[in-house]
Design goal:
Layout (H helix, E strand, L loop, with lengths): L2 H10 L1 H16 L3 E9 L5 E6 L5 E2 L2 E3 L6 H13 L2 E12 L10 E11 L10 E7 L13 H10 L3 E2 L1
Parallel strand pairs: 1-6, 5-8
Antiparallel strand pairs: 1-2, 1-4, 2-3, 2-7, 5-6
């Protein structure tokens, strides 16, 4: 097999393309990507979850930190984009989750915060999110959840602060 044929098979096969891109990005950057998960608490005490379009599972709202953003800015932006809700205040740090296996797409480090939110739930990002809904803490759809969000919620509900 020629080098050109080999490269074409890597590039033009959809299943291989992501693997190649991920490898190249890993070689170039060699750093995990920072992000947030938000345990959004409405005034009535309900917790807001989103159903992701990529896997159909419930998840905490959140996303990656963009260049030039700090964590409070990401929390504010992601809440608005994924739920239509506004940040009132960040109440506490729930944890920092850094296992390379926590997100099947990339190695990311997730800062999880509890946030007081207000407003009307109104799905904004129809590409990433299928639905947004609020649940009482006693009747959360805990499994299956995307990534390690089940563990993040369990840590929150137990009142612990976790760094893993």
């Amino acid at each position: 097999m020629s080098v050109v044929t080999f490269l074409n098979s890597l590039i033009y096969s959809p299943s291989n393309l992501w693997r190649v891109a991920k490898s190249i990005l890993g070689i170039i950057f060699r750093h995990p990507i920072p992000g947030t998960s938000i345990i959004a608490i409405l005034p009535d005490g309900k917790i807001v979850l989103v159903r992701r379009s990529d896997d159909g599972c419930w998840a905490l709202p959140g996303g990656m930190v963009d260049w030039g953003e700090d964590i409070p800015s990401v929390v504010r932006r992601e809440l608005r984009e994924e739920t239509g809700l506004e940040l009132v205040k960040i109440r506490r740090l729930v944890g920092v989750y850094s296992s390379p296996e926590r997100d099947p797409r990339i190695h990311s480090i997730c800062v999880v915060v509890e946030a007081e939110v207000e407003g009307e739930m109104n799905l904004q990002d129809h590409l990433e999110v299928l639905e947004v809904q609020a649940f009482p803490p006693t009747s959360l759809p805990l499994t299956p959840m995307s990534h390690d969000h089940y563990q993040q919620l369990q840590d929150y509900l137990s009142g612990s602060t976790t760094i893993v």
